[in-house]
TrEMBL record:
Residues 30-251 form the Aminoglycoside phosphotransferase domain. SUPFAM superfamilies: Protein kinase-like (PK-like). The keyword Lyase does not apply. It comes from the Bacteria. Pfam families: APH (PF01636). This is Aminoglycoside phosphotransferase (APT) family kinase protein. GO terms for molecular function: kinase activity. InterPro entries: ACAD10-like, ACAD10_11_N, Aminoglycoside_PTrfase, Kinase-like_dom_sf. It comes from Ruegeria conchae. Keywords: Kinase, Transferase.
Length: 344
Protein backbone atom coordinates (compact mmCIF):
# COMPACT_ATOMS: atom_id res chain seq x y z
CA UNK A 1 0.00 0.00 0.00
CA UNK A 2 1.28 3.46 -0.90
CA UNK A 3 0.33 7.05 -0.13
CA UNK A 4 1.46 10.48 -1.18
CA UNK A 5 4.01 12.16 1.07
CA UNK A 6 4.99 15.82 1.27
CA UNK A 7 8.14 15.38 3.37
CA UNK A 8 10.27 14.12 0.46
CA UNK A 9 11.70 16.89 -1.74
CA UNK A 10 10.98 15.23 -5.06
CA UNK A 11 12.63 18.00 -7.07
CA UNK A 12 15.87 17.56 -5.12
CA UNK A 13 15.73 13.79 -5.66
CA UNK A 14 15.17 14.19 -9.39
CA UNK A 15 18.02 16.66 -9.70
CA UNK A 16 20.36 14.34 -7.82
CA UNK A 17 19.40 11.25 -9.84
CA UNK A 18 19.84 13.13 -13.11
CA UNK A 19 23.47 13.67 -12.13
CA UNK A 20 24.28 10.39 -10.40
CA UNK A 21 22.13 7.52 -11.76
CA UNK A 22 23.01 6.17 -15.19
CA UNK A 23 20.00 5.79 -17.45
CA UNK A 24 17.72 7.91 -15.29
CA UNK A 25 15.18 10.06 -17.15
CA UNK A 26 12.39 12.03 -15.47
CA UNK A 27 9.90 13.38 -14.80
CA UNK A 28 9.79 11.71 -11.40
CA UNK A 29 6.84 10.84 -9.18
CA UNK A 30 7.16 9.54 -5.61
CA UNK A 31 4.68 7.70 -3.39
CA UNK A 32 5.41 6.51 0.12
CA UNK A 33 4.94 2.89 1.17
CA UNK A 34 2.77 2.79 4.30
CA UNK A 35 4.41 -0.37 5.61
CA UNK A 36 7.49 -0.09 7.81
CA UNK A 37 8.20 2.13 10.78
CA UNK A 38 11.91 2.74 10.82
CA UNK A 39 13.19 4.08 7.50
CA UNK A 40 10.64 5.84 5.24
CA UNK A 41 10.50 4.07 1.89
CA UNK A 42 9.20 5.42 -1.43
CA UNK A 43 8.32 4.14 -4.87
CA UNK A 44 9.97 6.37 -7.46
CA UNK A 45 8.25 6.24 -10.85
CA UNK A 46 9.35 7.61 -14.21
CA UNK A 47 7.72 7.04 -17.62
CA UNK A 48 10.14 4.18 -18.32
CA UNK A 49 11.42 2.86 -14.98
CA UNK A 50 10.58 2.34 -11.31
CA UNK A 51 12.95 2.51 -8.35
CA UNK A 52 12.74 2.37 -4.56
CA UNK A 53 14.23 5.07 -2.33
CA UNK A 54 14.88 4.36 1.33
CA UNK A 55 15.98 7.15 3.66
CA UNK A 56 16.75 7.93 7.27
CA UNK A 57 13.79 9.63 8.95
CA UNK A 58 14.09 13.33 9.74
CA UNK A 59 14.63 14.62 13.26
CA UNK A 60 16.92 13.69 16.15
CA UNK A 61 17.86 9.99 15.98
CA UNK A 62 19.61 7.44 18.16
CA UNK A 63 23.25 7.29 17.13
CA UNK A 64 23.37 3.78 15.63
CA UNK A 65 19.78 3.57 14.38
CA UNK A 66 18.40 3.85 10.81
CA UNK A 67 21.66 2.77 9.19
CA UNK A 68 20.74 3.01 5.51
CA UNK A 69 24.43 2.97 4.63
CA UNK A 70 24.74 -0.50 6.18
CA UNK A 71 21.70 -1.71 4.25
CA UNK A 72 23.30 -0.47 1.04
CA UNK A 73 26.62 -2.12 1.85
CA UNK A 74 25.23 -5.55 2.71
CA UNK A 75 22.94 -5.76 -0.32
CA UNK A 76 25.84 -4.69 -2.54
CA UNK A 77 27.98 -7.46 -1.04
CA UNK A 78 25.30 -10.11 -1.53
CA UNK A 79 24.76 -9.38 -5.22
CA UNK A 80 25.24 -12.65 -7.11
CA UNK A 81 25.14 -14.81 -3.95
CA UNK A 82 22.60 -17.51 -3.03
CA UNK A 83 20.76 -14.89 -0.97
CA UNK A 84 18.40 -12.96 -3.28
CA UNK A 85 18.51 -9.16 -2.82
CA UNK A 86 17.41 -6.18 -4.93
CA UNK A 87 20.06 -4.50 -7.06
CA UNK A 88 21.21 -1.31 -5.35
CA UNK A 89 22.02 1.69 -7.54
CA UNK A 90 23.47 4.44 -5.36
CA UNK A 91 23.95 5.74 -1.83
CA UNK A 92 23.78 9.43 -0.92
CA UNK A 93 25.18 10.33 2.49
CA UNK A 94 24.98 14.09 1.94
CA UNK A 95 22.21 15.33 4.25
CA UNK A 96 22.00 18.55 2.27
CA UNK A 97 20.25 16.84 -0.66
CA UNK A 98 16.95 15.88 1.04
CA UNK A 99 17.75 16.36 4.74
CA UNK A 100 18.98 12.82 5.48
CA UNK A 101 20.98 9.98 3.92
CA UNK A 102 19.24 7.72 1.40
CA UNK A 103 19.84 5.01 -1.16
CA UNK A 104 18.10 3.93 -4.35
CA UNK A 105 17.55 0.32 -5.40
CA UNK A 106 15.59 -1.59 -8.00
CA UNK A 107 11.84 -2.08 -7.66
CA UNK A 108 11.09 -5.79 -7.49
CA UNK A 109 7.96 -7.17 -9.14
CA UNK A 110 6.66 -9.91 -6.86
CA UNK A 111 4.41 -10.55 -3.91
CA UNK A 112 4.76 -10.32 -0.16
CA UNK A 113 2.84 -12.03 2.62
CA UNK A 114 1.82 -10.06 5.69
CA UNK A 115 1.78 -13.08 7.97
CA UNK A 116 2.63 -16.81 7.87
CA UNK A 117 -1.04 -17.89 7.75
CA UNK A 118 -1.10 -16.62 4.15
CA UNK A 119 -4.88 -16.38 4.10
CA UNK A 120 -6.34 -17.24 0.72
CA UNK A 121 -3.41 -19.40 -0.39
CA UNK A 122 -3.55 -23.17 -0.80
CA UNK A 123 -1.53 -25.60 1.30
CA UNK A 124 0.98 -26.26 -1.47
CA UNK A 125 1.83 -22.57 -1.59
CA UNK A 126 2.05 -22.26 2.19
CA UNK A 127 4.35 -25.27 2.47
CA UNK A 128 6.52 -24.05 -0.39
CA UNK A 129 6.86 -20.49 0.89
CA UNK A 130 7.84 -21.53 4.41
CA UNK A 131 10.32 -24.11 3.10
CA UNK A 132 11.84 -21.43 0.85
CA UNK A 133 12.03 -19.11 3.84
CA UNK A 134 13.94 -21.85 5.64
CA UNK A 135 16.27 -22.46 2.68
CA UNK A 136 17.15 -18.79 2.23
CA UNK A 137 17.84 -18.41 5.95
CA UNK A 138 20.27 -21.34 5.87
CA UNK A 139 21.93 -19.90 2.75
CA UNK A 140 22.28 -16.53 4.47
CA UNK A 141 24.13 -18.14 7.36
CA UNK A 142 26.42 -20.04 5.00
CA UNK A 143 27.61 -16.92 3.14
CA UNK A 144 31.43 -16.69 3.18
CA UNK A 145 31.73 -13.30 4.86
CA UNK A 146 35.41 -13.03 3.94
CA UNK A 147 34.74 -13.71 0.26
CA UNK A 148 31.99 -11.08 0.00
CA UNK A 149 33.94 -8.46 1.94
CA UNK A 150 31.86 -8.42 5.11
CA UNK A 151 34.30 -9.84 7.67
CA UNK A 152 34.46 -6.40 9.33
CA UNK A 153 30.70 -5.81 9.17
CA UNK A 154 30.37 -6.54 12.90
CA UNK A 155 32.78 -6.50 15.84
CA UNK A 156 34.34 -9.69 17.28
CA UNK A 157 33.37 -11.25 20.59
CA UNK A 158 30.23 -12.85 22.02
CA UNK A 159 27.36 -11.65 19.82
CA UNK A 160 24.67 -12.03 22.46
CA UNK A 161 26.63 -10.17 25.12
CA UNK A 162 27.16 -7.37 22.64
CA UNK A 163 23.55 -7.28 21.48
CA UNK A 164 22.07 -7.40 24.97
CA UNK A 165 24.28 -4.48 25.97
CA UNK A 166 23.40 -2.54 22.81
CA UNK A 167 19.64 -3.01 23.03
CA UNK A 168 19.59 -2.37 26.75
CA UNK A 169 21.27 0.95 26.04
CA UNK A 170 18.84 1.71 23.22
CA UNK A 171 15.91 0.76 25.43
CA UNK A 172 17.09 2.97 28.29
CA UNK A 173 17.55 5.87 25.85
CA UNK A 174 13.91 5.62 24.76
CA UNK A 175 12.37 4.43 28.06
CA UNK A 176 9.18 6.31 28.95
CA UNK A 177 8.11 4.39 32.05
CA UNK A 178 9.40 1.62 34.32
CA UNK A 179 8.35 -1.86 33.14
CA UNK A 180 9.34 -4.41 35.84
CA UNK A 181 9.19 -7.44 33.51
CA UNK A 182 11.52 -5.72 31.07
CA UNK A 183 14.03 -5.05 33.84
CA UNK A 184 13.77 -8.68 34.99
CA UNK A 185 14.23 -9.96 31.43
CA UNK A 186 17.35 -7.83 30.88
CA UNK A 187 18.90 -9.11 34.11
CA UNK A 188 18.06 -12.75 33.32
CA UNK A 189 19.49 -12.57 29.80
CA UNK A 190 22.71 -11.00 31.02
CA UNK A 191 23.07 -13.86 33.52
CA UNK A 192 22.30 -16.70 31.08
CA UNK A 193 24.35 -15.84 27.99
CA UNK A 194 25.70 -19.12 26.51
CA UNK A 195 29.42 -19.57 25.99
CA UNK A 196 30.60 -18.49 22.55
CA UNK A 197 30.55 -21.48 20.16
CA UNK A 198 32.54 -19.59 17.49
CA UNK A 199 29.70 -19.44 14.99
CA UNK A 200 30.19 -16.08 13.25
CA UNK A 201 27.93 -15.43 10.26
CA UNK A 202 26.02 -12.68 8.54
CA UNK A 203 22.70 -12.20 10.32
CA UNK A 204 19.71 -10.27 8.98
CA UNK A 205 18.42 -9.05 12.32
CA UNK A 206 14.73 -8.92 11.36
CA UNK A 207 14.13 -12.10 9.39
CA UNK A 208 10.39 -12.69 8.98
CA UNK A 209 8.00 -13.47 6.17
CA UNK A 210 6.93 -9.88 5.52
CA UNK A 211 10.55 -8.88 4.88
CA UNK A 212 10.79 -11.36 2.01
CA UNK A 213 9.46 -10.98 -1.54
CA UNK A 214 8.36 -14.00 -3.55
CA UNK A 215 7.64 -14.80 -7.19
CA UNK A 216 4.29 -13.51 -8.38
CA UNK A 217 3.17 -16.98 -9.46
CA UNK A 218 5.45 -19.23 -7.42
CA UNK A 219 7.10 -19.78 -4.07
CA UNK A 220 10.68 -18.81 -4.89
CA UNK A 221 12.12 -15.91 -2.93
CA UNK A 222 13.29 -13.04 -5.18
CA UNK A 223 14.42 -10.60 -2.51
CA UNK A 224 15.29 -10.32 1.17
CA UNK A 225 14.49 -6.76 2.32
CA UNK A 226 15.02 -4.43 5.29
CA UNK A 227 18.65 -5.06 6.30
CA UNK A 228 18.86 -2.20 8.81
CA UNK A 229 19.62 -4.51 11.76
CA UNK A 230 22.05 -6.77 9.90
CA UNK A 231 25.52 -7.43 11.25
CA UNK A 232 28.04 -10.19 11.76
CA UNK A 233 26.78 -12.25 14.65
CA UNK A 234 25.24 -15.52 15.72
CA UNK A 235 22.88 -17.32 13.30
CA UNK A 236 20.55 -18.61 16.02
CA UNK A 237 19.34 -15.06 16.60
CA UNK A 238 17.77 -15.03 13.12
CA UNK A 239 16.38 -18.54 13.46
CA UNK A 240 14.79 -17.80 16.82
CA UNK A 241 13.33 -14.56 15.41
CA UNK A 242 11.19 -16.64 13.06
CA UNK A 243 9.93 -18.80 15.91
CA UNK A 244 9.31 -15.73 18.08
CA UNK A 245 7.01 -14.27 15.43
CA UNK A 246 5.11 -17.54 15.13
CA UNK A 247 4.40 -17.63 18.87
CA UNK A 248 2.42 -14.40 18.63
CA UNK A 249 -1.35 -14.37 17.95
CA UNK A 250 -2.53 -14.61 14.32
CA UNK A 251 -4.09 -11.64 12.59
CA UNK A 252 -3.14 -8.13 11.58
CA UNK A 253 -1.33 -7.16 14.78
CA UNK A 254 0.40 -10.33 16.00
CA UNK A 255 0.96 -11.88 12.57
CA UNK A 256 1.82 -15.15 14.29
CA UNK A 257 0.63 -18.75 14.47
CA UNK A 258 -0.38 -19.14 18.13
CA UNK A 259 -3.39 -21.47 18.31
CA UNK A 260 -3.42 -22.08 14.54
CA UNK A 261 -3.98 -25.63 13.24
CA UNK A 262 -0.73 -25.70 11.31
CA UNK A 263 -1.04 -29.25 10.00
CA UNK A 264 -4.40 -28.42 8.42
CA UNK A 265 -2.81 -25.42 6.68
CA UNK A 266 0.34 -27.19 5.49
CA UNK A 267 2.57 -25.28 7.92
CA UNK A 268 5.45 -26.85 9.90
CA UNK A 269 5.78 -26.98 13.66
CA UNK A 270 8.47 -24.88 15.32
CA UNK A 271 10.56 -27.98 15.92
CA UNK A 272 10.24 -29.13 12.28
CA UNK A 273 11.33 -25.72 10.98
CA UNK A 274 14.36 -25.68 13.29
CA UNK A 275 15.24 -29.27 12.37
CA UNK A 276 15.06 -28.52 8.63
CA UNK A 277 17.31 -25.51 9.11
CA UNK A 278 19.87 -27.57 11.01
CA UNK A 279 19.78 -30.27 8.32
CA UNK A 280 20.40 -27.72 5.58
CA UNK A 281 23.39 -26.32 7.45
CA UNK A 282 24.64 -29.73 8.51
CA UNK A 283 24.71 -28.85 12.21
CA UNK A 284 23.47 -30.75 15.30
CA UNK A 285 20.27 -29.99 17.21
CA UNK A 286 20.33 -26.66 19.07
CA UNK A 287 20.56 -26.70 22.85
CA UNK A 288 19.00 -24.05 25.11
CA UNK A 289 16.83 -22.66 22.33
CA UNK A 290 14.69 -20.88 24.93
CA UNK A 291 17.48 -18.36 25.52
CA UNK A 292 17.66 -17.40 21.85
CA UNK A 293 13.88 -17.05 21.76
CA UNK A 294 13.88 -14.87 24.88
CA UNK A 295 16.62 -12.70 23.41
CA UNK A 296 14.43 -11.98 20.39
CA UNK A 297 11.43 -11.03 22.52
CA UNK A 298 13.71 -8.67 24.46
CA UNK A 299 15.16 -7.06 21.35
CA UNK A 300 11.73 -6.63 19.76
CA UNK A 301 10.49 -4.99 22.94
CA UNK A 302 13.40 -2.56 22.67
CA UNK A 303 12.60 -1.84 19.03
CA UNK A 304 8.94 -1.22 19.79
CA UNK A 305 9.88 1.10 22.64
CA UNK A 306 12.06 3.08 20.25
CA UNK A 307 9.24 3.38 17.71
CA UNK A 308 6.86 4.50 20.46
CA UNK A 309 9.33 7.13 21.68
CA UNK A 310 9.76 8.46 18.14
CA UNK A 311 5.97 8.79 17.91
CA UNK A 312 5.93 10.83 21.11
CA UNK A 313 8.74 12.98 19.70
CA UNK A 314 6.95 13.42 16.37
CA UNK A 315 9.52 11.51 14.30
CA UNK A 316 7.70 8.25 13.48
CA UNK A 317 7.14 7.20 9.86
CA UNK A 318 3.53 6.21 10.71
CA UNK A 319 2.72 8.19 13.91
CA UNK A 320 -0.74 6.77 14.61
CA UNK A 321 0.39 3.15 14.39
CA UNK A 322 3.61 3.86 16.26
CA UNK A 323 1.69 5.31 19.20
CA UNK A 324 -0.02 1.93 19.70
CA UNK A 325 3.29 0.06 19.88
CA UNK A 326 4.02 1.22 23.41
CA UNK A 327 1.37 -1.14 24.79
CA UNK A 328 3.18 -4.16 23.33
CA UNK A 329 6.47 -3.62 25.14
CA UNK A 330 5.43 -5.25 28.46
CA UNK A 331 3.73 -8.09 26.55
CA UNK A 332 6.96 -8.94 24.72
CA UNK A 333 8.87 -8.75 27.99
CA UNK A 334 6.45 -11.30 29.51
CA UNK A 335 6.89 -13.61 26.50
CA UNK A 336 10.66 -13.35 26.91
CA UNK A 337 10.52 -14.40 30.54
CA UNK A 338 8.27 -17.33 29.63
CA UNK A 339 10.69 -18.46 26.91
CA UNK A 340 13.55 -18.60 29.42
CA UNK A 341 11.51 -21.00 31.52
CA UNK A 342 10.75 -23.40 28.69
CA UNK A 343 12.23 -24.83 25.50
CA UNK A 344 10.71 -23.93 22.11
Amino acid sequence: MKETDSTLDINAVETYLNSHLDGFHGPLKATKFTVGQSNPTYLLSTPNEAYVLRRKPPGVLLKSAHAVDREFRVMSALAGSNVPVPKVHLLCEDDRVIGSAFYVMEYLQGRTFVDPVMKGEDNTTRTGVIDEMNRVLAELHMVDIDAVGLSDYGPPGNYFERQIARWTKQYRASETETIPDMNHLIAALEHQVPEDDNQRTLVHGDYRIDNLMFETNGTGCIGVLDWELSTIGHPYADLAAVIMQWQLPPGKEGRGLAGVDRENLGLPTDRAFVANYCARRGIPAIENFGFYLAFNFFRMAGILQGVYKRALDGNASDPKRAQAFGAYVPIFAQHGLSALRSEA
